[in-house]
Amino acid sequence: MKLSRIIHVTSVVIVGNLLSFNVAAHALWLEGDNAEARLYFGEYAENKRETSPGRLDSIVEPVVTVVDTKGEEKRVEASRVSNHFAIPLINNPAGATVLVQALKQAIREPQGEIPSPTYRRYLYARLGKGGSLPLDIQDNGNLLRLTFMGKPVPKAEVVVIAPNGWEKHLHTDEKGETDYTLLEPGVYVVEAKYELSKPGEFEGKAYGVESHKVTLTLYK
Question: Which of 15, 66, 187, 220 is deepest in the core (most CB within 10 A)?
Answer without folding.
Answer: 66
